[in-house]
Amino acid sequence: MIRKAVGAIVFQGDRCLIVHKTNINTVNGKHRIKGEWDFIKGGIEESDRNTKETLLRELYEETGSREYKVIKEFEEKIHFSFPDHIKEKIGFEKQETTMFLVEFLGNADSLTPKDQEIDSIKLIEFDQVGEMLTHQDTKEFFKEWIEKQTKK
Fold it and tell me: How many domains does the chain have?
């Protein structure tokens, strides 16, 4: 079974917003994980009307801010398989993440997670993002996006 999710490359000026996740949602509630640096991402819930609504909900839950401008939805998606020890806990084998480009319009000092998944939020220089991200598929997505930007 494939979990549908959304995520975003969130930027402000020449910096990119990343979050440190310490919990993931499972069929039985939150599950503690070894910390992972990632873009804001989250699963689509039945109550969400569309991917943009899911994205805005996730942005608020993971940063406590609603001060975002959605620039575009990427055609490319991130696909990955969950590790065996996570599959049974979350009830999904794979994830397909619809990614967006989003501008953060607020004050970075006001960012505070509203859920128990995130323990840290950082705005970092774009050239540091690839080093900080935990997951290879996300690193590759970001690297490809950066390469396209430099060719423009």
Answer: 1
